[in-house]
Amino acid sequence: MLQSTNLQYSYSANNALEFPDIQANKGEHWLILGESGSGKTTFLHLLAGLLTPKKGSVQIGNTDITKLSGAQLDKFRGQNIGIVFQKPHFVKALSVRENLQMAQYLAGVPQEGERIRTILDRLNLAHKLKSRTDALSEGEKQRVAIARALLNRPAVILADEPTSALDDTNCEEVIQLLKNEAAEQQSTLFIVTHDQRLKDRFENRITL
Ligand code: ADP
Ligand code: MG
Fold first, then answer.
1. What span, in angstroms and rounded, lies between the C-alpha atoms of 54 and 156?
2. 193 Cβ below 6 A of ligand 1
3. Residues 6+ away with beta carbon under 8 Å from 53
4. 29: left (phi > 0), else alpha (psi -120 to 50), else beta?
5. Each residue of 24-51: pLDDT tens digit?
6. Fold annotation for 2-207
7. What is the C-alpha to C-alpha distance for residues 39 and 72, in angstroms, rounded to an integer?
8. CB 39 less than 6 A from any atom of ligand 1
């Protein structure tokens, strides 16, 4: 369950962004649509605890993440929240497998090679296990970013414009993957985007 209440954030003293209250239950898929600059990334980063709100709270399961300390929050995030960032970023010198191992290490979960192989297999990336991430196509990078977000079986998956850099075929594939994998794990899936191609693909929809 992912719930936000009265969320506000400001980047400077003379402006404030306000966000709608949401209550996304276990297993639900949500789409947040908005023009560029409407606050989608800010909203997502507040929900992920990457930004601290000026007002309001974010509840994941039984935890109000705005009340956690930095170290508690990092651990909580690693174990409970999978994030697909607007631009995938990896450690370039490392392979796909090593980047995923690092995500397990940072979350303090066991470094299961089996889990990495399973998830890459499901995303049709098994043959890229040993590739360096900078040798991947954009679509492949996006799939590795999704693999990393799903790796630790998070209760909540947050994705920032996961399809905007992709052609129609890859767009369709990525959305299907996110939905299937979220369903498989009964995760709450929360996507923010300006990509109008997605607007009819989700029952729960909010426009910023
Ligand atoms: P979106 O993801 O929908 O394009 P953002 O959440 O990135 O929107 O930005 C929302 C608003 O906050 C915009 O007006 C943007 O200019 C402003 N903003 C975003 N990041 C910063 C920042 N680091 N410093 C100051 N203003 C910012
Ligand atoms: Mg954005």
1. 23
2. no
3. 7, 8, 9, 46, 66
4. beta
5. 999 999 999 999 999 999 999 999 999 9
6. Rossmann fold (3.40.50)
7. 26
8. yes
